[in-house]
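Q&A log
Question type: sequence-to-structure
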Amino acid sequence: MTDAIQSLERDVAAALGDRLVRAVSDRGELTVVVDAANLVEAARILRDHDTLAFSTLADLCANDYEGFGDAPPQGPRFAVVLHLLSLAHNRRLRVKVYCPDDGFPIVDSLVDVWPCANWYEREAFDLFGVVFEGHPDLRRILTDYGFMGHPFRKDFPISGHVEMRYDPVQKRVIYQPVTIEPREIVPRVIREDSYGTGKS
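Response status: OK
Response body:
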């Protein structure tokens, strides 16, 4: 761990206090975990504390840990990850918060802390189904309004649930069950027994 990462970890731990669940340094980056109940308060501290000043939310995304690393589940399935930037101190920080309920993943919205979280949260909602409590306009942003499910979840079928097409008879877009039949898409390679040995 570099001196800069150690210094950042000390500053974050001092500012967050008991709101910090754990801190992990990996590949030259610091990741801190906070509880969902403390997310907004921790975010405001990280933004407003003089020694931190993480004024910029560079990204917000979600993760689905179902089947992660082929290991049995060891915690909540869904997490929201923030990537923060302090322009004043030239520091970066990753903040992770786990959604306490796998069946209905929900965390508080950060739009009031960083307004740019608006579209990031809509994207995480659309693709992973994470609900952001208090978001001013939480609706799909990348998929169609009639889309069923959340396509970045690990249990979402590769072919989806429904397909959309234009019907020239009805002169409108219609939805119908998927008509693509499951098939093997890995090409089979058939070789002769003597392939690559120089024998014909």
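Response note: The longest helix spans residues 3-16.
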